[in-house]
Amino acid sequence: MTDDRFMKLALSLGRRGLGNVWPNPAVGCVIARGARVIGRGWTQPGGRPHAEVVALEQAGAGARGASVYVTLEPCAHHGETPPCADALIAAGVARVVVALSDPDPRVNGQGIERLRAAGIEVVEGVCAQEARVDQAGFLSRVTRGRPVVTLKLATSLDGRIATASGESQWITGPDARRFVHALRLRHDAVLVGGGTARADDPTLTVRGMGQVPQPVRVVLSRHLDLPLDSKLSRSAREVPLWLIHGDRAQPELIRAWEDIGAICLPVPVRQSALDLEAVLALLAACGVTRVFCEGGGGLAASLLTEGLVDDYIGFTAGVALGAEGRPSLAAMGVGPLADAPRMSLTETRVLGGDVMHRWRMPDG
Fold this sequence. Notes:
The chain contains 12 helices and 18 strands. It is an alpha/beta fold. The strands form 4 sheets. It has a 9-stranded mixed sheet, sandwiched between helices. Strands 2-1-3-4-5 form a 5-stranded mixed sheet, sandwiched between helices. A two-stranded antiparallel ribbon has the order 7-16.
């Protein structure tokens, strides 16, 4: 039970790095002597220093003979910093408890082997399932070549996202909207389709959370036909803006967006739409591990149809808009009910007058 308790603390520390350490994993580390914590750390913004290094610095000489709890296998390769496995060995720790092994080919068991070769006891698999959820983005990028995708929709009781005229602000209340900002903060990138960017003129930034790192804002627009005078364009130099477009977008539009600070990235077109698998592979190649998709209905339906959604977070408000309201999802071509994507409920929460419900795909 002591191992579980300290590992749960390490997991809670590691979550502080979600959204601001990519492409690195958000790792937590606790160093303990007996029942007393003498060092704690988590991966710092930008991915350096690593959690183990932060915790070792805090523990100082007390780390000799201590137990270390780390949510992901200590790295074993030389990158911008020396291997964390070597740092633990040099500090003279007696025992290392690891939640998950690291599938990165540069590690992949080598960190654990190095620790054991130095005479350090290593215990694996403590709170592994919880760690797997926290590390889903990093693990997905390494093993599947794409980030995890969380789809978020805010709807009326009858599944509408706007009135017939397009009015949508605000279907949900302030508590739900604040929760959405907290969710954005825990992701590397916020993703919308071009239709949403044109209709809503969003900023897609985290607000009301103080001075925090901002996620990359990603907009999919096959023709790059987005308004050059918008909240996104006016903030492109302050907050990263990536525009993913088809290979036939007009060069003058690409230059115009790049001149105001956006990064334009081409992907192939498949069946008259951007290839979403290629989009996610491109984001992974750029280091992104966790994507928060906020619509619209066409993009959401395509992601679900292609099996590219890992988690769904819905916010349901106590209002009905009727059949004339705009549906939350575009047509998906579902025939038999058995063919419809089906998810497992993992959490519900009341937020003011709204209900948040979180679902996970079977393989998410």
